[in-house]
Amino acid sequence: MSEILESYVAGTWTKGAGTGREVLDAVTGEPVTRVSSEGIDMGEVVRHAREVGGPALRALTFPERAAALKAAAGAVQERKDELYALSARAGATARDSGVDIDGGAGTAFVYSSLGRKGLPDGKVVVEDDFIQLGKEGVFGGRHVLTTPHGVALQINAFNFPVWGMMEKLAPALLAGVPTIVKPATPTAYIAVAAARIMLETGALPEGSLQVVAGSIPGLLDQLGGQDHIGFTGSADTAATLRGHEAVTRRSAHFNAEADSLNASVLGPDAAPGEPEFDLFVKGLVTEMTTKAGQKCTAIRRALVPQDRMDDVAQAVEAKLAGIGVGAPGADGVRMGALVGTEQRDDVRAAAARIAAAGTVVHGDLEKVEVIGADADRGAFMSPYLVRVDDADRGEPHSVEAFGPVSTLMPYRDVDHAVDLLARGEGSLAGSVVSNDRDFVTGVVAGAAPYHGRILVLDRESAPESTGHGIPMPQLVHGGPGRAGGGQEEGGLRAVHAHLQRTAVQGSPAVLDSLG
Ligand code: NAP
Questions:
Q1: CB 84 less than 6 A from any atom of ligand 1
Q2: Which of 40, 46, 158, 162 to mutate to test the pocket of ligand 1 (most atoms within 8 A of CB)?
Q3: Which atom of ligand 1 is found nearest the CA of 214?
Q4: 257 included as an active-site residue
């Protein structure tokens, strides 16, 4: 029987009791580990964070916290080969691992640098110049941002075990708030390994990072107004957590990043042969196949002018036909496995619902040719592109297939394109691929209220573009509505979000002395 995965709680590596939940290798189906938090005292975990981690972090200045973060991220970067090897067991190719592992370390480096340059050499941020509130100018106000005496609980999705942990850890650490990580069970072994690497540096004060592999019964009962819950995962789990008394009665801060039906729009100007046509096709194929489409930002809906449907279908089909599916690292493999067979079966079922609204351009839900692995044992599926000519059908705008699945649909004009974008009811990321400025501004202005981020891609920005699916630490990540309604990242905004903003009123001299 495989070993129980260790958790790091209250200063020690601890194994949960019982048999736990078995996690299988996504490629071979062999057992990797078992996950159990049985017997771990969640009250003690929170107490340790509050009483040991919190005071230790609050004793450090912002630049000292930035240095600790840099050291931790540096270790992840240096030892990334260990994490790549584990990540391959979850079905990730080297390119996928790069997004998660290098992406996670890179995000923390950016935060460390922002913290060093953009936060004071102290422990308090003072905002605003003196805001005069009286006639004579002897009374006014400023805002101060201070570290709450709480914890940051992060509950993560399975798809980015390292990036998901780092992008939440970085701003919390800079803010001086201790973190408790609850990774998703299917990839908890990767998150725990990355946490171990960071803890082994000794750079992080004891209690500032704990990781609980497995469920966290009762933990939220310990949380309240000084605490922050950062959740990434499904809309259903977000709804359950948002309804917890920690949030509804005790006002713990709650931030959710949930699923989303992201779209990319091809401009009317982009005929075959134009650079934007190729950029659109390439972007769609990349988003469908990176991480086997298990990306919260992946393009689920591809919107093209009515008279371009055939051209785009053919061009995307030709590229998808060249994507080898199989064991990460095997020759010719461009797309790995989904995280597990259960997940694959969910994706197949969702894709079948979408396909019922149209026709299949590429892929087969029942069979897939696999390189270097056994198709029956691993969680493989082929990329799957559906064409729905009646873009007003409901399925493509409501069913999320969290895998290598996308739907091609036509739009009539800019207003129709904006309407279709809005039918996702709130997305993390949207793209407009066009060199037509009027079209671009129409789409951006119309669709922005429904998006957390919009990428405008054209021949000018393409050489430096980071692509549709990659959130950048300097910019906000998170979307309205269906996407969870939260916002993470966005540079120092994410650090500020962990701090308490207090208005302080008094004389100019008093307010001046705050910093
Ligand atoms: P999930 O089932 O909602 O699980 C997410 C996390 O919540 C896991 O760590 C899970 O733990 C935990 N969880 C479940 N029930 C809980 C409860 N009652 N109390 C505390 N924690 C609980 O989602 P998933 O299947 O891992 O992820 C897939 C979904 O995440 C997709 O819909 C995708 O769109 C979304 N996603 C969004 C983003 C984003 O940035 N917006 C990023 C990635 C994924 P266990 O694993 O132990 O059950």
A1: no
A2: 158
A3: 47
A4: yes
Catalytic residue among 296, 317, 400, 488: 296
The SS3 of residue 35 is strand
CA dihedral angle for residue 339, residue 343, residue 344, residue 346, rounded to 10 degrees: -160
pLDDT one-digit tens code per residue, 442-465? 999 999 999 999 999 999 999 999
Distance, first Cα to last Cα, the chain: 58
pTM for the model stands at: 0.95
Per-residue pLDDT tens over the stretch 376-421: 999 999 999 999 999 999 999 999 999 999 999 999 999 999 999 9
Q: Give the position, in ligand 1's atom list, of the atom nearest the Cα of 295.
A: 43
What does the block give as tokens for 504? 């302080």
Q: Is any atom of ligand 1 closer than 6 Å to the C-beta of 96? A: no
CA distance 332 to 351: 25
Q: What is the pLDDT of residues 260-298, one digit of tens each?
A: 999 999 999 999 999 999 999 999 999 999 999 999 999
Handedness of CA 41, 43, 49, 52 (dihedral sign): negative
For a ligand 1 pocket test, name from 37, 155, 301 the mutation site with the most ligand atoms within 8 angstroms of its C-beta. Answer: 155
Instruction: Of 158, 210, 387, 200, give the one whose Cα is nearest residue 284.
Output: 387
Which amino acid type is present at position 161? Answer: P
β-strand partners of 255: 230
Residue 111's closest CA among 484, 486, 475, 487?
Answer: 475
- Looking up tokens 């973190």 gives 179
